[in-house]
Amino acid sequence: MDAQNLTARLKSSGLLRSQALIGGKWIDAYDGKTIKVHNPATGEVITEVPCMGSKETNDAISSSYDAFYSWSKRTAAERSRHLRKWYDLLIAHREELGQLITLEQGKPLTEAMGEVTYGANFIEFFSEEAKRVYGDIIPSPLADRRLLVLKQPVGVVGAITPWNFPLAMITRKVGPALACGCTVIIKPSEFTPLTALAAAELALQAGIPPGAVNVVMGNASDIGDALLASPQVRKITFTGSTAVGKKLMAGASATVKKISLELGGNAPCIVFDDADIDVAVKGALGAKFRNSGQTCVCANRIIVQEGIYEKFADAFSKAVQNLKVGDGFSEGVAQGPLINEAALHKVESFVQDALSKGAKVLLGGKRHSLGRTFYEPTVLSDVKSEMLISREEVFGPVAPLLRFKTEEEAIRMANDTNAGLAAYIFTNNVQRSWRVTEALEYGLVGVNEGLISTEVAPFGGIKQSGLGREGSKYGIDEYLELKYMCLGNMTGN
Ligand code: ADP
């Protein structure tokens, strides 16, 4: 596909925007500064977007604060209808949004279109949940009193999102926030602001009022600090690195904000001797190589029982060998580029560390001949728990295989990390699937399945992988406050 033609078409559709959105108006940075947005597959500049800081963020906060007053007063049915309209528009523009994702993020177009559906589903789901924010009536211990619990929106929300899912990480935050009456300032990653801006344009078209959804981008720490400092911002919701998440958590204490964090994982994928090998290979492949390994639920350690190890390693390597690498717009491509040079260097240094400590390359192990940030889909064997690649997220297309003997050992290895987001197990033993799931210190567990994210289930981590849950009926609680109401003097006439 000709990138220039595509860019021109997206511009004329109104979905390729190069300005930020504050109070319903498309604007530049106040000092005119911009940042370039690149196509990671080609290095070409797609467009430039405003490089904003605290001033613009403070204005976005004010507009969000003003909009909160009226948006939160709308009936749940009205908010629901706007969200449903937004969902319909996201789906109607699925192709253009998918193209934007591939352009700025690099994932293959079919995967990008899959993200649009997945991302839009959060808006649909929360358009329905908007109508089900029920309170409670508590049996009173005193005859003359009636006790009630109301659920009310927390207020203005700052939503800081990463580059690996340019749409879905936004909709899973903004969907529940808007559904219950909150208003939002989105700070997308500077690597992938275009999908966020297109989604915001569609939110305006859906009749979501000016100020209810704002998008600012630029100097991340200045924007973050402004959101943290403002007493008008009542909640921060963040998906990204553990290091930045910890900073935000500390910063939120000054104004005692509510906070939700989706941070890094270190997902174990345990393959037992009694697994169905085809199911395990397919599941591990999906769990590891989705988005070229750049998700926080990607299998980071494939822990295989000794009886099936050689057979699995062989079948898995063959499957990985079939993954076509290339520009996400090319037919049949399953693996796009890594997001940038820093990501490539990280992958290289982790592989180097593993090889220097005794790991062996079964497949790949180096940069791809396509150049730029393409890396060969890689399988390493003889990986040990103390290697860097087992300790931290590699965030790239490298599958390290570790060996274990007993179930207890596998659980110990899997839990030997500060992370606790996703885990996967492959076994045909029903009792074992329960036993191991209960023993794993993780927020999500896939049993005989490698792709487990859905808008209807709670997504989130334990330990240092985060706080709170996104998606599902539980996800809306993160945006609500409980208010207890005591009605006295209820026995009088
Ligand atoms: P990644 O390594 O996946 O890019 P980051 O945590 O660096 O993860 O980025 C996730 C999001 O957090 C991005 O939108 C980024 O711009 C933003 N971010 C980075 N540093 C800060 C900060 N100090 N304050 C607020 N947001 C930040």
Low-confidence stretches: none
How far the N terminus sits from the C terminus, by CA atoms, comes to 77 Å
CATH topology of the largest domain: Aldehyde Dehydrogenase, Chain A, domain 1
Number of strands: 20
Q: What is the helical fraction, as a range of percent?
A: 25-40%
State the strand order across the main sheet: 14-15-16-13-12-17-18
Described by strand count, sense and barrel closure, the largest sheet is:
7 strands, mixed
From the structure provided, what is the oligomeric state, counting identical versus distinct chains?
single chain
Provide an overview of this structure:
- This protein is of the alpha/beta class.
- It folds into 2 domains: 3-263 and 466-482, Aldehyde Dehydrogenase, Chain A, domain 1 (3-Layer(aba) Sandwich), CATH 3.40.605; 267-447, Aldehyde Dehydrogenase, Chain A, domain 2 (3-Layer(aba) Sandwich), CATH 3.40.309.
- Helices cover 39% and strands 20% of the residues.
- It is built from 16 helices and 20 strands.
- The chain has helices at residues 3-12, 54-71, 76-92, 94-105, 109-129, 168-180, 193-205, 220-229, 242-252, 277-289, 309-321, 341-356, 388-391, 407-415, 430-439, 472-475; strands spanning 20-22, 25-27, 34-38, 45-50, 136-138, 146-153, 156-160, 183-187, 213-215, 233-239, 258-262, 267-271, 299-305, 360-363, 378-381, 398-404, 422-426, 444-447, 466-467, 480-487.
- A 7-stranded mixed β-sheet has the order 14-15-16-13-12-17-18, sandwiched between helices. Strands 9-8-7-10-11-19 form a 6-stranded mixed β-sheet, with helices on both faces. The protein has a 3-stranded antiparallel β-sheet with strand order 5-6-20, with no helix packed on it.
- Helix 2 (54-71) packs across helix 8 (220-229), helix 3 packs antiparallel against helix 6 (168-180) and helix 5 runs parallel beside helix 6 (168-180).
- The chain is globular.
- The chain starts with a helix and ends in a 6-residue tail after the last strand.
- Adenosine-5'-diphosphate (ADP) is lined by residues 160-163, 187, 189-190, 220-221, 224, 240-241, 244, 247.
